[in-house]
Amino acid sequence: MKNKLVDEFYHLKVKQLMNKRIWDTPIIEENEDIFSVLNILGARNHIWVVNNKQEKKLVGAITEHDILVTLAPKSFSPYTFGLPDIRSLQHETVKTARDIMSTEVISCTEDEKIIDILQRMTRYKLRRLPVVRNNQIIGEITLNQLIRKFYDATQYHSITEEG
Description:
Layout (H helix, E strand, L loop, with lengths): L1 H9 L3 H4 L9 E3 L4 H8 L4 E5 L7 E6 H8 L25 H4 L13 H11 L3 E6 L2 E7 H12 L9
């Protein structure tokens, strides 16, 4: 019974389990100031960065760890090899979301299987993925959502919202 449920879960599509409430997804434009970033991260642990809110083209992501790197005091050693990470609130080198975002965002599409995104999350040690269509963010899927959906299914509830 449980193995059948796991197999069914693995073969579901992302669109059957993803958060489609784009209005409830933490999104910010790349040119918004760092204080808007801090405000959102005060309530959420990540932000998807888009070129603008009309097109919603995904250009980056910001996590709490990115803020930790910029918030922590920096001391630059004269003996550092390579380019040091100069992102710093203290030295005012971070002013917009673009200055702090990671640009290599691992994403998924709505037609991918859950087993494939679970393997991607494991490989890259991620807890959430933006769901994109033609490079436009249309939602997100999180490990927490997947856990809740799977648990609900073990309690004889439908594994998908459609019923």
